[in-house]
Known about the structure:
This protein is α/β, with parallel strands linked by helices. The chain has one domain: Aldolase class I (TIM Barrel, Alpha-Beta Barrel). 47% of the residues lie in helices and 11% in strands. It has twelve helices and eight strands. The chain has an eight-stranded parallel β-sheet with strand order 1-8-7-6-5-4-3-2, with helices on one face. α1 crosses α2 (56-70), α6 (148-157) runs parallel beside α7 and α9 (211-222) runs antiparallel to α10 (226-243). The chain is globular and about 50 Å long. The mean pLDDT is 94.
Amino acid sequence: MKSRIKGVIPPLTTPFTEEEEVYEEGLRNLLDFQIERGIHGVFLCGTYGSGPLMSLEQRKKVVEIAMDQIKGRIAVIAHVGTTNTRDTIELARHAEENGVDAVASVPPYYYRHDEQTVLEYFRNLVNAVDIPVYVYNNPKTSGFTVTPSTLAKLADLGVKGIKDSGFNLIEFSHFILREEFNFIIGTEALFLPAMLLGASGCISGLANVFPELVVELYDAIVEKKYEKAAELQLKVNKARQILHIPRSTNAACYAMLRERGVDVGVPKRPVLPVPEESVKLMKEEFAKIGLNV
């Protein structure tokens, strides 16, 4: 059966209260904002979602609220990666019990692990659940690079897909292993070329703020309107640059969603809110490319 994990999948921002608790009303409103603008799925508790900053109970709460609000309307991937196998399996089993489509994990981070350790970690994760397991390749944050040869071994263990945030299109092209394996590019900056190489979708940070823009790009690619797609890809990349004006793109999403009328609370510390001068600059730059907030 072909996976329904495809298209535009925001790594969903997690709303927090001033007390650093999960902001339920904000999360429910954000999910409706995203679904109304055509996204195809969400990636919960990832980098943009502040997953590593949350307790296990907070991460479970995000999944529970999201699944209750979504009610099967879109696909859901829960990121369950932690520093250790036991906590990862606990999150994965909880996510499965709550009906997510798949779980994903970075290799265990902080300590520098060798390939055999990473393979054993994923072997345990795959054996712990019945839903698909994706590997999340994010060398910058995990300290481990999933190479094409490592990915082949992971596929042999039963891993069903990859979210690749390695930002290397050549390496991504080498990942294309087999038809039943699902390839998701982890940056909107490479959406068009990655789709042409065989990706089924994109986990796009920019889509947190401008889901309709990234969905328009996806639709153009699927409809093979490549001239339009190329123009939209450049617009997406420019918008992505603007989102990077603050030091934290995570914090930038809170600021710009607020400007779009979506109350997502505040970032979780130690992430700091975006200074007002940066908010003003982003708004001005977005307006120059036709994105008014």
